[in-house]
Amino acid sequence: MKFDPLGAYRILPGQNYYINAPKQRNLMVVLTVNENVLIPVERLAQEVWHFDLVVGADGAWSRVRPAVRGTGVADRAGAGRGAAAPGRMRTRAGSWYDGTATLLWAGAGEPDPKSSLLTGGGEAGGALLTSAQDLGVDVGDVGRISEPSGRGTGYLALIDVVALWTTGLFSLSLLLSDRVQGRVQGVATLIFSILLILASLVLLVIAFVELTVMVSLFLAAPFGTLAYLALWGFFPVGEASLLLALVLLLKLVWGVLLLLAQPRFLQNKGLVLLVLTTLVCTVVLEFLHRLVPVILVSILDDVGALVFAIVAIVWGLVLLIGSIPAIVKAVRVTATVQ
């Protein structure tokens, strides 16, 4: 039986297996076996071939050095190469184990940049999809899985919306009379702050749960780590950096335009502090993305999202408390007029 370089197969005892691939290609094969053994395999050209990664049923895994020439699995006739008995596999230590193995992936060449499903250092999405189609299995769109872009950038909007709301209120003060603004501002700010706090609390819980899952999978080697890498191991740092740079530029332009439109905005300490908060949070998120290797960026991105949700809750409480005096004053003025 010959293996296509890209495919998923069930390896059974009592057969001879070869890798049908060009000699100049470097292959990576990932296997699971029902015994914690290292399984070397020969190629058709009598060259030694080995499994780069073997994952045992007990969860142990290791990378394998090239095996000794002449070892392999038993052939169909029962005369196994390397004096192997039918249905048995020889380990590097020389002992034999009955069992079967499942080839998860064998890939050659460079990974496909269009695919985000990477396993063992190469592209596996196309391989698994092709093999499933050969077997008549409908796998839907799993071959086109897209990488999650992280929550940090989205949660940053929770703080930005506070800045936008505050800017809108100050802009209305230039257009409306103090009497009209006093009646509208307190109630509107109260409603906005309550909605902001509730939304931030929900998003905080979501980010915390996701962060817990990330850390748990990453620490649960090997299968949990592999699952983490498949889902969150390849964070698009470049795209996120470009987006954050654009957001930071827009915020700087917004601050300059505010200052040019009305210099007395600098006298409002709350607005200045809010502007600084949103600028600092943007810079901090970019710093977190560059702080660790790419496989850990998703974790720090979620940590940043948690911090942003907490900051948004704090600002929501500030707006909520600040709206109470305005509402009381508006009620008193209305009662006095009546």
Protein described:
- The chain is an alpha+beta fold.
- It folds into two domains: 143 residues, no CATH class; 186 residues, no CATH class.
- It has seven helices and 13 strands.
- A five-stranded mixed β-sheet has the order 2-11-4-7-8. Strands 1-3 form a two-stranded parallel sheet.
- It is elongated, with a radius of gyration of 30 Å.
- The N terminus is likely disordered.
Radius of gyration: 30 Å
Structural class: alpha+beta
Shape: elongated
The chain-level mean pLDDT equals 66
Strand arrangement within the widest β-sheet reads 2-11-4-7-8
What is the count of β-strands?
A: 13
Roughly what fraction of the amino acids lie in strands?
Answer: 5-15%
- Main sheet summary: 5 strands, mixed
Question: How is the quaternary structure best described?
Answer: single chain
Count of DSSP helices? 7
Intertermini distance: 95 Å
Low-confidence stretches: 1-128, 141-148
Helix content: 40-55%
Main traits of this protein?
338 residues; alpha+beta; 2 domains; 13 strands; 13% strand
In short:
The chain is of the alpha+beta class. 52% of the residues lie in helices and 13% in strands.
